[in-house]
Amino acid sequence: MEGLEIQDIWKRFGEVDVLRGVSFKQEKGEILALLGPSGSGKTTLLEIIAGLADPDQGDCLWNGESLLEVPPHLRNFGLMFQEYVLFPHKNVGENVAFGLKMAGTNREITSTRVEEVLDLVGLSGLEDRDPATLSGGEQQRIALARSLAPEPRLVMLDEPLGALDRSIRERLIGELRDILKSSSQTALYVTHDQEEAFRIADRVVILGNGKTAQIGTPRQIYHQPNSPYIARFLGMNNLLKGEAKPSPKGTVLETDIGTWLVEDPHQGSGVILIRPDQVRVGPEDDKRASSLTGKLVSSSFSSSAIHLNIEINSHQLGFSCSDCGMDIPQTGEPIQISFDPNKALLFIPA
Ligand code: ADP
Ligand code: MG
Q1: Looking at the CA of 47, which ligand is closest?
Q2: Can you name the residues that pair with 310 across neighbouring β-strands?
Q3: Ligand nearest 37 Cα, by number?
């Protein structure tokens, strides 16, 4: 296979196994996001791939060949970290040229390449500027240009937008994807932010409990979280214990708050997720043939929606509506929700 292959990586610090058998493959040209909560071992894994740390067990391969004996500077991987450490006493051009100089690239090729990558990140003509006079977002793009300049076969970005304001982050994440895609750059993007991972990546690897908890395209993971852990991590908290039982007409999902007939191949015990985006606040209609009545516990407003906490048979569930199909009742009053069970309910086997 062309690209990166991580095979069963283990790493222990003191008494704790931080990585407990992480495996995944990354195709050449692919943007992969490595997503996990803070402390889940993302940076540790990047350091192992970069050759800055050794795994206790397992292997990293590039194009099928082990990297373990290859020293960091010969791996031809680029790195960019959260604290965009641009060299303060060098101008933008010198910063971007750094890796090329280290590799002994001649002046002419270096200056052409510097121009090229500055153009790629949308900062042409800033070669002579002092980095300190640029905005945080601009500095981040210079740091990206610096890591891309030596044309690394893999660039690894460790929470590169972590230090920036939310609004800048939201704009930069789309630009970053465009930049990486336009140069077909293979990139491993590390973040704890689900939204960021989903926006930038072709595929997402979620780390949980030291292992690869789920791998897939953003769409696949969102539509089919494979465990309650993943569902919760993605902010889908409407989870109920339930049973999937076969019946002549399909599968019957049984929970504390209701029983529904769905087309689902699974059976057994598990957890049932009610997707908030597939639930309408209000009574049933043609499209949403099933409804539940609960009690409104609380409501809050944000720019995009009204968020409602609804208690149904002692379970608190969260829903939101931007264009609510009804007047929102007072706290403590009954409120109805409606949905198509086949779209709104996902059975996750135990
Ligand atoms: P993440 O990048 O996902 O936030 P890290 O890889 O930085 O996670 O860290 C994972 C865990 O390993 C943390 O608990 C951290 O304290 C620990 N750790 C990381 N590096 C070292 C080290 N060099 N020595 C001891 N513990 C470490
Ligand atoms: Mg980290």
Answers
A1: 1
A2: 296, 317
A3: 1
